[in-house]
Amino acid sequence: MELINGKELSQELRADLKKRVENFTEKTGLGVCLAVVLVGEDPASQVYVRNKIKACEQAGIKSLETRLAATTSEAELLQVVEGLNVDPQVNGILVQLPLPKGLNEDKITDAISPLKDADGLVTENLGLLVAGRTRVAACTPSGVIELLKKHKIPIQGANAVVVGRSQIVGKPMALLLLEQNATVTICHSRTKDLRKHLHEADIVVVAAGQPEFLGADDFKEGTVIIDVGMHRRADGKLCGDVRFDELKNKAKAMTPVPGGVGPMTIAMLLENTLKLAELQASGGHHE
Ligand code: NDP
Predict the structure, then answer these.
(1) Looking at residues 255-282, what average pLDDT do you find?
(2) Is 96 a catalytic residue?
(3) pTM above 0.90?
(4) Are 208 and 173 in contact (CB under 8 A)?
């Protein structure tokens, strides 16, 4: 089994990105800046935000952090986002999800200017993805495509199954695979015979959020398995949606958890931020 190492690729991409940020600044005289908004005290979100800010620093991307109390009202948060939308030094905006109860995530996300949408989650950008005119796409699925390409996994014509249909992972993942000419099946909690679909797949991306729920019997020999799931087990270890040990002699190639998809998400966030900076510097038009 070929191990699909996201940690290694993300380091390569981030080193390359640092050079591209320097080139951009040399060419335009402008910096690159990502604004990160964190509302509330969710411990996992605090870790994610810290890691994102650290990654920005390493790539030479300036980060602008706004921390708001969990009691922040929707109107106040919308005002913060609006301020960042019109701030000329800000190229990308990220509002860390999940938001505290009472704040409408769809409304807040859609308040971000589509040209500053570092997470690729604004409805206009999802629409462009559907239309085949991708501007920026969600970071985790974009990272999966990079992993498949790096490992020279043939996507064109492949039967690809995506397990999960969330706005953040499953749906954009299916669209990005379609863009690469895969034949895509989307499975979800109401799918009648998940195993039947999995057995027909050349590539499976699992993003169901169910700890280790798939094992050896669920896949045919030689499948490429990308495990997006991320969970902490009772013994303190991290695991994915798939039982890695059962599949390591059956899969053709597979991502580990941790060290697979996770590190790619941050690399793609930086990539999106630079892409948006380039787009803004060129007047907001598509290349
Ligand atoms: P959601 O909970 O939003 O979506 C889960 C999806 O899986 C839903 O569409 C659901 O179907 C489907 N599903 C749930 N159970 C089953 C099942 N038994 N069989 C088939 N489909 C099922 O999760 P996210 O998409 O946000 O995240 C998925 C996983 O990826 C999580 O473990 C999360 O922690 C991880 N993640 C990891 C990231 C990383 O960087 N590594 C980034 C983002 C997420 P239905 O729509 O019918 O309810």
Answers:
(1) 97
(2) yes
(3) yes
(4) no
Active-site position among 117, 119, 227, 241: 119
Each residue's pLDDT tens digit, 122-178: 999 999 999 999 999 999 999 999 999 999 999 999 999 999 999 999 999 999 999
The burial of 131, by beta-carbon neighbours within 10 Å (0-12 exposed, 13-18 middle, 19 or more buried), is given as exposed
For residue 167, the CA-to-ligand 1 centroid distance in Å is 10
Is 119 tagged catalytic?
A: yes
**Separation of alpha carbons 183 and 230, rounded Å:** 26
List the residue whose alpha carbon is closest to atom 47 of ligand 1.
Answer: 189
For residue 123, what is the enclosing H or E element?
Answer: helix 123-130
Tell me the per-residue pLDDT of 67-87, one tens digit each, with 9 for 90 and over: 999 999 999 999 999 999 999
**Ligand 1 center–CA 30 separation, angstroms:** 38
- All residues at 6 or more sequence positions from 45 whose CB lies less than 8 Å from its CB, including other chains: 38, 96, 97, 98
Backbone angles phi, psi at 225, to 5 degrees: -120, 120
To which residue do tokens 């997006």 refer?
A: 228
- Distance of CA 131 from the midpoint of ligand 1 (Å): 24
Residues across the chain: 287
Q: How far is CA 142 from CA 16, 28, 127, in A?
A: 17, 27, 16
